[in-house]
């Protein structure tokens, strides 16, 4: 009862803070402790300031990233996830925050600089399967929804950006040896996930990183893809898929469970979901085993 009342009070305080911004973008310290330039009119800014944004992913990051690690945030948007990654790896680690669109990239750089997150390096590029240029449809009032194939946003506009394979981006920024020491990759690129995977075969083969990837069937379909296209690409490198389930108990302590998952085209039933991909017996798998993350039965078996 007391904890429930406390949560309601906290919720009300954050609501008042949002109202006090009067719809004006400004710097704010968010519940995670970071300073971020928040637009309260955006869904992203609203949910970050309320403390609700991707709690499952940020908890996962605290469990599997350690000091000195190297990780990739592909589709970094305004940098919230990259800030969590940077805090986890400390100054001895390396985070590449990869974001192609101008509006989001400017916010990303500002947020990283404001928090003096020296372990995070921002790269303005799309990650794909080839080098060249790419037209991305930008949603100006919700830049995190910018997409290559989904052009339904009212008032959206096209932006030509650089595109390069993630393997190439890593070599350019961190050196060739980094291809074999990447611990974790987050991919959230609003429909372009299959092509991102096509552009990182060396990373997937040499590092076998844990992969957290968004799977959004309706958006994928606009590019001619299905969730199975993501699943098959990861399976080809020995990965097995899990669906993460995040929970807080009565006193607010978080936990995360991984449910073995396969046949995404059938089981997702057209619904968006995040997936965790891991290779059996890899360093990433052993790291998950040593963490507080629980794996349901029907668990990982050798392919």
Secondary structure layout plus pairing:
Elements: H1 2-20, E1 26-29, E2 35-38, H2 43-50, H3 55-64, E3 70-74, H4 80-89, E4 94-98, H5 102-114, E5 120-123, E6 126-127, E7 132-138, E8 157-164, H6 166-174, E9 182-187, H7 193-198, H8 201-207, E10 210-215, H9 217-222, H10 227-235, E11 240-248, E12 254-261, H11 264-267, E13 273-278, H12 283-290, E14 294-295
Parallel strand pairs: 3-4, 3-9, 4-5, 6-8, 9-10, 12-14
Antiparallel strand pairs: 1-2, 7-8, 10-13, 11-12, 11-13
Helix pairs in contact: 3-4
CATH architectural designation of the largest domain: 3-Layer(aba) Sandwich
CATH H-level homologous superfamily name of the largest domain: Vaccinia Virus protein VP39
Q: Write the element-wise H/E pattern from the N-terminal end onward.
A: HEEHHEHEHEEEEHEHHEHHEEHEHE
Radius of gyration from the alpha-carbon trace, in angstroms: 19 Å
CATH topology (level 3) name of the largest domain: Rossmann fold
Low-confidence stretches: none
């Amino acid at each position: 009862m007391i904890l429930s009342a406390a949560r309601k009070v906290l919720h009300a305080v954050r609501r008042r803070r949002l109202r006090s911004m009067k719809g004006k973008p400004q710097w704010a310290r968010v519940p995670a402790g970071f300073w971020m330039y928040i637009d309260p009119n955006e869904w992203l800014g609203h949910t970050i300031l309320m403390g609700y944004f991707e709690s499952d992913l940020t908890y996962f990051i605290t469990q599997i990233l350690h000091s000195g690690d190297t990780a990739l945030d592909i589709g970094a948007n305004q940098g919230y996830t990259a800030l969590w990654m940077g805090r986890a790896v400390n100054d001895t680690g390396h985070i590449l925050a990869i974001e192609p669109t101008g509006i989001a990239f400017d916010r990303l750089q500002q947020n990283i600089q404001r928090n003096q997150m020296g372990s995070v390096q921002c790269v303005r590029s799309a990650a794909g399967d080839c080098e060249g240029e790419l037209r991305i449809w930008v949603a100006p009032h919700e830049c995190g929804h910018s997409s290559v194939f989904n052009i339904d946003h009212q008032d959206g506009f096209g932006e030509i950006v650089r595109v390069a394979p993630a393997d190439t981006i890593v070599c350019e920024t961190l050196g060739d040896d980094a291809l074999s020491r990447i611990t974790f990759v987050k991919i959230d690129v609003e429909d372009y996930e299959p092509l991102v995977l096509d552009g990182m075969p060396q990373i997937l083969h040499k590092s076998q990183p844990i992969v957290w990837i968004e799977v959004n069937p309706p958006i994928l379909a606009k590019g001619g893809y299905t969730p199975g296209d993501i699943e098959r690409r990861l399976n080809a490198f020995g990965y097995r898929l899990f669906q993460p389930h995040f929970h807080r108990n009565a006193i607010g302590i978080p936990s995360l469970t991984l449910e073995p998952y396969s046949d995404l085209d059938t089981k997702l039933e057209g619904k968006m979901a995040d997936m965790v991909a891991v290779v059996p017996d890899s360093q990433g798998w052993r790291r998950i085993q040593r963490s507080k993350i629980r794996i349901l039965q029907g668990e990982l078996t050798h392919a």
